[in-house]
Each structure stands twice: as structure tokens, then as C-alpha cells.
Design brief:
Elements lengths: L1 H31 L2 E3 L9 E6 L16 E9 L4 E5 L3 E2 L7 E3 L3 E4 L7 E8 L5 E9 L5 H12 L6 E7 L4 E5 L12 H14 L7 E2 L2 E2 H10 L3 H11 L2 H10 L15 H13 L5 H11 L19 E10 L5 E10 L4 E8 L4 H19 L1
Parallel strand pairs: 3-9
Antiparallel strand pairs: 1-4, 2-3, 4-7, 5-8, 6-7, 8-9, 10-11, 10-16, 12-13, 14-15, 15-16
Helix pairs in contact: 2-9, 4-5
Length: 375
């Protein structure tokens, strides 16, 4: 009887010890899995465990513990603030500007400059690691649908419009009549500005050099900011006129059709010029920044088109163009780079035989439609 009671007591003790042991292991496991995403149902999250090693049993002595490694991916859209709980974990990663650490959380607030893949590493006291691959991405956009929206906005004047759009971060776009030759008007002044700055950078010219009694720096400002034709003619004369200028635009700048004489352009080629400016393909950083700043200071009276279609404070590096086209009609153009909140894009719109007031409104409406869709 005593033996049976003793066996029962031993069995109870064994179960208690087993329960305590299992509880200890469970606590450790819970401690390990205290890293999680907040708002797990949010559609902006796309997280999954890529690989996880076996979580081995261990005793209370840390030195005998077999650490585990968990790798997770987290895809975020730009401008979507997210918090990852990291209780009992510390960061082992390099500092990233879009991540802010607090005592028990990590806030991720990416912007367009963070687009791409980054890796961070978290570790707890047992050596457990969680490696996050953070992919900063942009929401998908249907450029086919966006093109349809733009065509609808242009309406019955479609034959009088040429348009090219290129999203610089998504690296996609479309064109409408983009290969049709048309008149660029004063947009043709942009390649002159590029060539002048190239020659200043190489030492062939200087900002203080005089042309027709005015220094080159002032000519550049007048030609781009105020769309002054006298400054354009001064540069054209200095370079030896169109038969020397055009080959340089085509061969050195890589732009097939954007000429002062003959006065023709394609919006696809003009968009390529602005893409190369954006990428800094023509100039060193200091001179390229100078050019972009110059294009961003267009005089107030010429801010009625692309600039009028973006939110206040959004930078637009652009050049307008306009010509009389007979009767009450005009060539009414605008082309440039829009530095949006989530993405940057190049937009070139050229027209013929249009009403300037109505076209200014239409260009700003199209710009607003594109900006809202891409951002």
C-alpha cells in the first residue's frame, strides 16, 4: 500500500517537473517570438518567414542554448509608416535613415529615396537573430488605364496633342503621338543650357564670359527662367548656328529630334533629354544641380501649366514653350521633371493650333491626374 502511494507521489512529482520544464521551454519560445508585426491585417504588409532553423530545447544556462535564426521579408510602400515590436531584441544593423528605434519597437517610415532592398538584424540575449529584408516598393499602377484617363482628358483635340510620361522610380510610362514631329518652341533652349554648362565645366567657357555685353551666367538665367530669345540667339551665334549645334545635340547629348532650326521635336526625345538630366548623365553633380535649380526657377508668369497641376511645394524643373499659330491659336507647351512625394516623373506635353487659356487648364488638369495616380 505504501509502495503504491509512493509510486503515485513519484508520478505526481514527475508530472509537476515535466509541466514546469515544458512551461520553461514555452516561456523561452514565447520570449523568442515576441517579435511581430503590428496591424497584421493591413494590406500594405507582405511579410513571411523565408527560413527558420529548428528551435532546440535548452536548459536555463545560456551557454548551452542553441540560438536560432529567423529570416523575414517585409515589403512596404513608400510613405507607409509601420511599427515592428521588438521586445527583448536589440538592433545589430547599420543605421538606416527611415528606421527609428525605441525601447520596444522599430518604426519604419520609408520615402522614395529608400526604394530598394535593405537588411536589418535584431538579436536577443540568447543570440537569437531575426533578419529582416525590407523591400521598399511603390504601389502598382496601371499605365494602360492612366493613358486612357489622359486621352479622355484631352478629348476631341487628341490630334493636336503630343505627350510623353515616364515614371522615374517605377521605370515605366507611355506616350501619345510621342513620335510625331512638332514644334518645341522655347523648350529647345534646354539643350543649349546643357551644352553651355558642359563647356563651362570643361573650361572652354566661364560664367563671367561676356556675350553681347552680358555674362553667360546672366544669359543662362534669362534664357531658362524668363525664356528670353536674345540670350538664345547669343548662344546660337557663339556656337556657330544650327549646322554645328544640331550635330552636337544629336551626337553628344544623344537626342535625335529637338532642334532650334529646323524647329522640330518629338516628345519622346524631349522626355529622354529630361531623363538624362535627372540621372546626371551630362554633367557633374554640382553643375547638374545648378541646371535643375535653374529649371526650377521658371518665372511666375510661366507657371500656368505643369506646375499648376501639382500640390503646393512640389518641385518642378521645367521649361515652357509657346508660339503664335495663326488666328487665336497657339503652340502651347511644357516639359520637365516633377519631384513628387512618392515618385518622380518626366512629363512632356506639346500642342499645336490650340487656345492658350484652355490648353493651360487642360495641361494642369492632365498633370494633376497623373500626379495623383502615381503618388
Amino acid at each position: 500500500m505504501k509502495s503504491k502511494r509512493k509510486n503515485t507521489i513519484l508520478q505526481l512529482l514527475f508530472l509537476i517537473v515535466l509541466f514546469v520544464g515544458m512551461f520553461a521551454i514555452t516561456v523561452e519560445a514565447m520570449n523568442y517570438y515576441k517579435v511581430d508585426f503590428s496591424n497584421p491585417g493591413d494590406s500594405y504588409f507582405d511579410s513571411k518567414i523565408v527560413a527558420e532553423s529548428q528551435n532546440l530545447e535548452h536548459d536555463d544556462e545560456v551557454e548551452n542554448y542553441q540560438p536560432t535564426v529567423v529570416q523575414k521579408t517585409l515589403s512596404l510602400f513608400t510613405n507607409q509608416k509601420r511599427i515592428i515590436l521588438i521586445s527583448d531584441y536589440v538592433s545589430m544593423s547599420d543605421d538606416l535613415s527611415f528606421i527609428v528605434y525605441s525601447d520596444d519597437s522599430m518604426t519604419i517610415n520609408p520615402t522614395k529615396v529608400d526604394i530598394g532592398s535593405h537588411q536589418i538584424e535584431l538579436m536577443n540575449q540568447f543570440g537569437d537573430k531575426i533578419i529582416y529584408e525590407i523591400n521598399i516598393v511603390l504601389p502598382e499602377v496601371s499605365f494602360d488605364k492612366l493613358e486612357d484617363y489622359v486621352i479622355d482628358a484631352i478629348g476631341s483635340e487628341l490630334d493636336n496633342y503630343r505627350l510623353t510620361l515616364y515614371d522615374l522610380n517605377r521605370e515605366r510610362g507611355f506616350s501619345i503621338n510621342g513620335e510625331v514631329v512638332t514644334q518645341p518652341a522655347s523648350i529647345s533652349k534646354v539643350p543649349f543650357a546643357v551644352m553651355v554648362l558642359q563647356d563651362i565645366e570643361s573650361g572652354k567657357m566661364s560664367f563671367k564670359q561676356l556675350l553681347n555685353g552680358i555674362n553667360i551666367e546672366e544669359h543662362l538665367s534669362r534664357m531658362i527662367r524668363d525664356s528670353n530669345n536674345d540670350s538664345l540667339l547669343a548662344f546660337n551665334t557663339n556656337y556657330g548656328y544650327y549646322h554645328k549645334v544640331n550635330p552636337r545635340i544629336q551626337n553628344e547629348l544623344g537626342i535625335e529630334t529637338l532642334n532650334f532650326y529646323p524647329h522640330d521635336a518629338k516628345t519622346d526625345d524631349t522626355a529622354l533629354l529630361f531623363r538624362k538630366i535627372y540621372d546626371g548623365d551630362y554633367l557633374s553633380e554640382i553643375y547638374n544641380n545648378y541646371l535643375i535649380k535653374l529649371l526650377s526657377t521658371t518665372a511666375p508668369q510661366w507657371q500656368d501649366r505643369i506646375t499648376a497641376g501639382v500640390p503646393d511645394g512640389v518641385q518642378v524643373a521645367h521649361k515652357i514653350g509657346q508660339l503664335y499659330d495663326g488666328g487665336n491659336y497657339f503652340v502651347w507647351n511644357d516639359a520637365g521633371i516633377v519631384y513628387g512625394q512618392s515618385t518622380d516623373f518626366v512629363l512632356v506635353i506639346m500642342t499645336k493650333h490650340v487656345d492658350k487659356v484652355e490648353t493651360s487648364k487642360k495641361i494642369s488638369t492632365i498633370t494633376q491626374l497623373i500626379y495623383n495616380e502615381l503618388n
